[in-house]
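A brief tutorial aside. Many learners find it easier to grasp structure tokens once they have seen a single protein encoded end to end. The record that follows does exactly this for Transposase. Read the sequence first, then the structure, and try to relate runs of similar tokens to stretches of the chain.
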Amino acid sequence: MRGADSYNEALFSTVRLDEFVPASHPLRPIRTWLNEALAKMDAKFSAMYEADVKGGRPSIAPEKLMRAMLLQVLYSIRSERQLVEQISYNLLFRWFVGLSIEDTVWNHSVFSKNRDRLIEFDAVTELFNATVEMAATKGLLSGEHFSVDGTLIQAWASHKSVRRKDGSDDGRPPENWHGDKRSNATHASATDPESRLYRKSSAAPAQLSYLGHVLTDNRHGLVVNVRASTADGYAERDVAATLLGDVARPDVRVTVGADKGYDTRGFVKACREMKVTPHVARNTRRTGGSAIDGRTTRHGGYAMSQRRRKCIEQCFGWGKTIGPIRQVMVRSLAKVDQLFTLTMAAYNLTRLRSLAALRPQVV
């Protein structure tokens, strides 16, 4: 017998939101770990809103905002308007954020208003650090063998926004820039002044960009340190030395794998001063020769570091295909650094989920 095409909505429902999410859904372990990390940040969240205690309406819970920001990265949602729209009718998103079916979703402008507050109190950085601590407690980090690399992050600005710093072309149409010689010393973007014209190779065009730097642990490729910087020819090595300084241990000799771009005497010297063995790929074509000699390359660990260092490209690939760091939709170095750090935190959580499926004992 044919069923009737009817729709009768009950006045009340006894189905819990949690029942709509399958027990095997990949977001379940991520939400559990995320809630543990956010619970440890309760004191920081309280400090963020101490200045508003005298008046005003209660704010949106920062825990909900950070869960929503992480969803935006995990599901490649292009804008905060689309994110709010998804949360309003997507039961999975409501469950992950922590909203009931009856709760009203906030306006998309809430993210813009609270982004500066999260930057001021380094909330995203603390969330990232929590994912690293979680991996350490589960025995997923070696703590001794690392890889370092950088990637180009295209800024949210176009060539038409680049103007002379002295203002001599203020009356000139922005379309007439072809054929002009430009440099970071004489020109800057009017929409994102902190971005820099940069290219990774002589065959690539110069783009307004930032640089993202990552330090990964060689055991499972988890990101243990992250930072964004302005784009120039020295930032990759300078920031890499800073990242290594945070993990260097005076009692243990650690190693770091890197590509030929790090084969400079300054970087190698900085590593050895920190008691870090530089397992850097040799660049014999550099003027003066390679800074790495047979004292380093003769050991088996050097060849292993060179094999493992290539795994660092996985976090960059994930961040640019799934995440939003191919071209960021925020402006200023602080906001780019926040988004880059959040993306690497999301990458760590997905890696932890995959490792937990392979090794159930790490859950």
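Self-check: The mean pLDDT is 87. If you spotted this yourself, you are ready for the next section.
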